[in-house]
Every structure is written in structure tokens, then in C-alpha cells.
């Protein structure tokens, strides 16, 4: 479960400190929930594949432009070194995966986007590791990237009726292990806390309940990830069980 760290710098941003569940934060959460349904409604109303592709193009462009603009912003002001700019946060990988899933329509890519996008990025939206409030650019960039991923995933579920299956959990867990190994190596080489594998995030999150012993902490992270995956699959499992029960009674 990872969020993109926002660099700590000496600036005037603390004039607008981030307030968890303040009006700007609640507005972001509201838009994250509502926008995919609005976009899906537009596609269904128009019944146009061109409109669907246009929405996908806009979502993809916003995610990519926001990512590049953020890197240019923090680098141009000397806020970070190259070690802190590597695309190794889970949201960075999630962004790439959801864009691929939207353009290819591939179920396997959707599976990864679903579990990473909802399981990891949703936590970032609800409990962000963020110091800067609206209208600071870092606030806007942070939530554009994280909320954009969720909007893309839910949009695919509504329009193309994609869903995860039992084996999806296994496949995505293996992809997550690949991410874990790559990021763990990068953390050791750079000393930067990608994926929160070096230490817990400063902001409160579910990771704060894990052990202070790093080996045990890393092991527990695997358990938390698996629990998240099972929880995200649970609604579909319940629907499948109910459907089978109804069919058996006919």
C-alpha cells in the first residue's frame, strides 16, 4: 500500500497546511466517487465509442501531464534529487497499468489496475501522506494522480463490466511481489522510502499498526496486501455465491 511521497521543502506552502477531511479533502473524495459514474453515464447516453475513447484519452492525458508537470515543478525548484524522482511508488505503477488497461481493454491489465488502484491508491486518497493543502500545486497534483487512477478503474468497471476473479488475486499478488523486490532494492540503493519499505509513512495510515521491527514490518505488509485483495474481491464472491444459489433453486 503506497502513496507518492511529497518532498519536504522550505517554502510558504504551510500557509495552507493540509487538513484531513477538511472541505478540500472531502470535495476530492466526493469527486473521486461521482466522476466515474458521470463519465459512464455520458458514454451510455451517447452510445458512442468515440466518446468513450475521448474520455479515455482525456483521463490518460491528465494523468501523464500531471505526472510530468509535478516532476518538472519539484526539480526546477531544487526540491528533490534524482533519487527521489524515480517512478517507484505504487501509484506510479498503478497509473501506467490503468492507462494500459483503458487503451487495450485487456482483462489481465484491468485486474492489476483494480487491486493496485483501489487497494493502494484509495488508501492514499483517504489517508494521504501530504503536508500541503489546497490550492498548493502539490495538493492538486497528489489528488489528480491518485483520484485519477481510481476514476479510470471504476470507469472501466461501469462501461466494460470488468471484474476480478479468484485467480486474479494470485496473479496480482505475484505482480505485487515483483514490485516489492524492485522497490526494496531501489530503497536500499537510494535511501529513499519508496513504497514505505524503509519505514512507516509520517501520516497516519493502516501501516502505523504494523510492527516497529523492519523485517516483521515488511512481512506484515504482505499480509495487509493480501487482506486488502481478499476484501476487494469479497463483494464479487458474494454476488457469485448468491447467483449460484438462485440458479440451483430454479
What are the low-pLDDT stretches, counting only 5+ consecutive residues below 50?
Answer: none
* Percent of residues in helices: 55-70%
- N- and C-termini, Cα separation: 43 Å
The domain count comes to 1
Total count of strands: 0
- How much β-strand is present in the residues? under 5%
- Structural class category: mainly alpha
What is the number of helical segments per DSSP (H or I, 4+ residues)?
7
Mean pLDDT: 90
Taking Cα atoms only, what radius of gyration do you get, to the nearest Å?
19 Å
N-to-C SSE string, H for helix and E for strand: HHHHHHH
Seen as an oligomer or otherwise, the chain set is single chain
**Largest sheet at a glance?**
none
**Overall morphology:** globular
Helices and strands in order, then pairings?
Blueprint: H1 23-46, H2 49-76, H3 90-104, H4 107-126, H5 137-160, H6 166-190, H7 214-248
Q: Describe it for me?
A:
The protein is mainly α. It has one domain (13-248). Helix content is 68%, strand content 0%. It is built from seven helices and no strands. It has helices at residues 23-46, 49-76, 90-104, 107-126, 137-160, 166-190, 214-248. Helix 1 packs antiparallel against helix 2. The longest helix is centred in the last third of the chain and has 35 residues, at 214-248. The N and C termini lie far apart (43 Å). The model has no long low-confidence stretch (mean pLDDT 90).
Task: Give a quick precis of the structure.
The chain is an all-alpha fold and 250 residues long. It contains 7 helices and no strands.
Amino acid at each position: 500500500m503506497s502513496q507518492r511521497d511529497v518532498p519536504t521543502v522550505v517554502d510558504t506552502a504551510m500557509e495552507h497546511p493540509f487538513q484531513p477531511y477538511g472541505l478540500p479533502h472531502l470535495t476530492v473524495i466526493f469527486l473521486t466517487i461521482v466522476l466515474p459514474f458521470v463519465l459512464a453515464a455520458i458514454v451510455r447516453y451517447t452510445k458512442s465509442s468515440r466518446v468513450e475513447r475521448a474520455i479515455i484519452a482525456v483521463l490518460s492525458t491528465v494523468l501523464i501531464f500531471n505526472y510530468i508537470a509535478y516532476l518538472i515543478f519539484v526539480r526546477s525548484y531544487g526540491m528533490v534529487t534524482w533519487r527521489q524522482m524515480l517512478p517507484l511508488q505504487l501509484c506510479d505503477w498503478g497509473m501506467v497499468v490503468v492507462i494500459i488497461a483503458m487503451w487495450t481493454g485487456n482483462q489481465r491489465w484491468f485486474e492489476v489496475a483494480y487491486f493496485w488502484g483501489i487497494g493502494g491508491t484509495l488508501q492514499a486518497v483517504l489517508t494521504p501522506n501530504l503536508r500541503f493543502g489546497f490550492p498548493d500545486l502539490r495538493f492538486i497534483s497528489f489528488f489528480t494522480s491518485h483520484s485519477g487512477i481510481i476514476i479510470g478503474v471504476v470507469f472501466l468497471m461501469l462501461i466494460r463490466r470488468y471484474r476480478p476473479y479468484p485467480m486474479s488475486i494470485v496473479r496480482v499478488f505475484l505482480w505485487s511481489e515483483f514490485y516489492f523486490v524492485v522497490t526494496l532494492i531501489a530503497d536500499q540503493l537510494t535511501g529513499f522510502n519508496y513504497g514505505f519499505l524503509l519505514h512507516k509513512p509520517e501520516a497516519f495510515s493502516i501501516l502505523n499498526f504494523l510492527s516497529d521491527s523492519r523485517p516483521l514490518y515488511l512481512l506484515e505488509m504482505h499480509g495487509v496486501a493480501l487482506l486488502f485483495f481478499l476484501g476487494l474481491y469479497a463483494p464479487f464472491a458474494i454476488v457469485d455465491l448468491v447467483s449460484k444459489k438462485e440458479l440451483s433453486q430454479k
